[in-house]
Amino acid sequence: MxxxxxxxxxxxxxxxxxxxxxxxxxxxxxxxxxxxxxxEDGQDEIDQADGDSETTESQDAAQTDxxxxxxxxxxxxxTERAVSSDIPEELPLDSDxxxxxDGATSYSAxxxxxxxxxxxxxxxxGLSLQDHLREQAELSRLSDRDLAIAEAIIxxxxxxxxxxxxxxxxxxxLPPEWGVETDEVEAIRHLIQRFDPLGVASLDPRExxxxxxxxxxxxxxxxxxxRLLVDRHLDLLGSRQLAQLMRxxxxxxxxxxxxxxxxxxxxxxxxxxxxSSTTEYVTPDVFVRRAPEGWRVxxxxxxxxxxxxxxxxxxxxxRADSSEQxxxxxxxxxxxxxxIKSLRSRNETLLKVAGCIVRHQQEFLEHGEEAMKPxxxxxxxEEVDMHESTISRVTTQKYMYTPRGTFEFKYFFSSHVHTVDxxxxxxxxIRARIKRLxxxxxxxxxxxxxxxxxxxxxxxxNVARRTVAKYRESMAIPSSNERKRIA
Length: 487
Description:
- The protein is α+β, with helices and mostly antiparallel strands.
- Among the domains are: 205-273; 286-298 and 353-412, no CATH class; 416-483, Arc Repressor Mutant, subunit A (Orthogonal Bundle).
- Helices cover 54% and strands 7% of the residues.
- The protein is built from 25 helices and eight strands.
- The chain has helices spanning 3-12, 16-29, 43-54, 57-63, 66-82, 95-100, 113-123, 129-138, 144-155, 167-173, 182-193, 205-214, 223-232, 234-238, 242-249, 253-263, 311-315, 324-360, 362-367, 377-384, 388-394, 427-439, 449-458, 465-474, 480-483, and strands at 33-35, 286-291, 294-299, 307-309, 399-402, 405-408, 416-418, 424-426.
- The strands form three sheets. Strands 3-2-5-6 form a four-stranded mixed β-sheet, covered by helices on one side. A two-stranded antiparallel ribbon has the order 1-4.
- Helix 8 (129-138) packs antiparallel against helix 9 and helix 23 (449-458) packs across helix 24 (465-474).
- The chain is flat.
- The N and C termini lie far apart (67 Å).
């Protein structure tokens, strides 16, 4: 493959955030590239630069002041020393590209200062759970020995708040000459368990939940019963054996519901309250809007950076000059043209694929998930006359904003199931129908997978019970036995 094609393919598979990073790296390393300002497209400047490159060296000298050129070349020389390049020395210019692809991309404007600051605030990483606990340990006025033990315990805390190893393993991590006993480690661990968030460094959910219950006011309704349930019958609650819970605890249905309501206010994963992971904000690549003539697909003006060729540096390229500086300028200009061409190709491909998806899934936009049509990559590839692997790249980590929400392109693709009348139904639509049927069921008599399959068959969708079970499990919906409430 040519370098141009390799670059175009690589840009296709980048997400919006990765693309911004890629463009920034190109701006930092290629002196021919610069951010475009406002609505300028830089075409006139680049046409002039290409015209200059066609003239002889003597004509260039006559049109440009010698002192200005010398100063510019010194600046270029300094830039060359700062930027390394693996491009071959002789890279021919393609003048046709200059006629067609030079200039700025036309799909977005530069971010304002306020937008950049807001983005930096949003992407700044938070404090990790371990750092949060260390800060509290340092404020606890522990001795150096106890603080070292606390560090060993905190290092063993997982992101969910529980210890990732046993007390014996923590002991083994401490210097043997200290002679630390198990009781010392347990004492420090119990101290850490009362740090914020309450219940961290626990060995199991029972221990963490009991600590949280102990922290509630004494007069909290159903506190005694909740503590008894967590202490002795947590396994029955986990397996949803509610009838047996009522018998063991001598509670009525309503009373048990009150106890469970109190337990639900607790956090079985205390460490999840503190997370160092950065929240990822999805930036849609395209917008889908309703228009009088139908559904319209537009590129998001914030999804693609706006760049152009620096016309002044481009004007310094001399066709007949084979000096090292001129060769470097030519290489940078060629790379800049390739990048702009690849960006435009990427955006054109995004529009083509998004438009094809919208044409196929108009009923989804009108009526929701249950109206989703079956669609596979091959169908889109044939319609837009591209390879299936290209469609796969385009639909990965690319997002579409619609009136029904923001979805990854791949969301609109699903396998099909044959209906009774010989038509095809989307697996996504079938899952949505199953979800609605379960949502509307009698909680005391939940629908089994077999019953769901029967209902779907009466609606013309011929699916087996095991297929229904697979779809239900993919949506993290419990089985009918687990959904069954107290009779």
